[in-house]
Structures are given as C-alpha cells and as structure tokens.
Amino acid sequence: MGKKHIAVAMGGYSSEFEISINSGNVVCDALDKNKYEVYPIHIMEEGWYFVAKNGTKHPINKADFSFDNGTETIKPDAVFNTIHGTPGEDGYLQAYWKLLGIPHTSTDYYQAALSFNKRDCLSVLKNFGVRAANSYYVNEGNEINVEEIVRKTGLPCFVKPNRSGSSFGVSKVHEMEELMPAIKTAFTEDSEIIIETALVGVEVSVGVYNNGEEIIALPITEIVSENDFFDYEAKYLGKSQEITPARISDEETETVKKEAVRIYRLLNMKGITRSEFIIEKGKPYFLEINTNPGLSAESIVPKQARETGMTLTQFFDILIQNVLK
User: Fold this and answer.
1) pTM, whole model, 2 decimals?
2) Are 153 and 169 in the same domain?
3) 268 lies in the same domain as 122
4) pLDDT tens-digit readout, 73-94
5) DSSP letters of 61-74?
6) CA proximity to 185, closest of 175, 172, 197
C-alpha cells in the first residue's frame, strides 16, 4: 500500500482567498506524512497550480485535475477542500470533482450551494421549525421601502450580503437613516441582501462533522466581540474573544449541540461544518452554517477539536478517511 495522494485545495476567487491560504497551509502541515503525500493546490482566478516546496508552480490540468510534481503526473486520490467562498464553498468545485470522480472532504455540491445562499438556507430550515431572526430580502434593482423593512425587522438590524463570508459587507444599523448606506455597502459584495432583526443574547459557534455514519458536535465556542458585532476586525484582527467551551449552562450546551446536529442532518451535510447561533432567553436562533469553516491555527474549529483532546492531525485524518473508504 503506497501513500495516498491528497490535494489540499486553497485560495478561491473571493475576498476570503488569503484566509483560505492560511487554512490550507495549516492542513498541509498537519496531515500525517506517513500516510499521505500532500500537495498544496492554489485555485486562483489567474490560474490553478500545484505549488512545490521550492515555490515552483505546476499548472493543474482541468480535464482530470492532474498535475506534474516534477517527476511524474499525479492524479489525487482525494481533495481536502479548504476554500472559503467561491468556487470552493458554493458548490462549483464540488460538482466538478464529482464529475471527475474525485472524492473531497467538503459537503456535496447542492448542499454547498444551498447553505452558501443564506436566504434559501433559512427558507428551508424554517419549514423544519428551526428558529431564526425575522428577515427581509432585497435584490439589486428592487424599490427599497425603508419603513417597511424596519416594520418587519425592527431596529437595530443587520444588513448582510446574501452570499459572502467573513462578514464582508455586513453592517449593524441602529437608526433608520443608516439603512440605505448599509444596503449600498452590502451591494458591493452581492446583488442580493438579507436584513435581519439583531437578536440579543450569547453568540455561539459549533463545529459538526461526520465520522463515518456518526454525526458529532464539537465543544461550543462563545464569541464576545469588542466591536458592535462579530465583524471582519473581530474575526481576524483580534477584536474579539472566543471562549471554548462557551460559558453557558449544560442545558443550553446540550440544546445547541442537538440543534446543530439536527440542522446538519436536515441539510444532508458531510465533512466539517460550523453553525452560528444566538442564544436568546435560553433558545438557540440559527444565523448561518459554513461548510468550509476556517482551519488556520487560531480558527474556531481547530480550537474546538483540540478541546476534545484530538490533534489536528487526528481530526483531519478522520475527514480524509471518511472519503477514501
């Protein structure tokens, strides 16, 4: 039995590409080198490349996702997908790998596309009785009635691009006159917008993954932002505290984990996902689910995995073994 060839896909075409490169590099470092030959694959708008240790870029043949490693042509046995945003978190690459018959660690293309679209995902989950904030949808070109929006969501409210990550383009609006500028900001990231009531409570984040047939929730992380909400600065520039395990009651912990696992099942997910909730008066309200959550050393999911006593090497191994079987 030779080593399995694992391509670690990173980068992407969105504002999140740098964050993804960090995640990808962490995965490359952590994967068990006794079991796997690991290949960092940069998927960028300017091209797709295997980047060798000496920095040489070898182009990917998009016909079968193969590449030259300097001595031979490699066709990966599996892809470890760490791309946040398009085209790795919204279903495009998942569908492409499926067509090529290459297994990958992320969820399937339809589940990826559905969950990447916050509005569609909420619509599906609300039908299953999942609690979420009141929301109002706006598309570019729609006439915007500020009074009607505020009647539906109240103030303060959040204005978010429908399909974007890392809180790019998100604003918290306290006064009616802030609403139009916030909508303009969100339109810089997406032509569809979601406006939601700002829930008041404890924000938590929980990773859920499958180990074969078993679905497991990781310890919960509580997010305390120094800024008005968990925005880009809070996420990446240290303007927040992330506390694992969360300082919530055992009962709330149980409720959140159960709901996160239920949502994973309802959406028919695979691999590692991370769901965000606000616990208001003891009840979890669902915000969103990420199907390719950040995996860099300071990201939430790696902290949760370590809290269970697993190393990242062990955790990532489970994700790969899931798809190699």
Assistant:
1) 0.91
2) yes
3) yes
4) 999 999 999 999 999 999 999 9
5) BTTTTBEE-SSSEE
6) 172
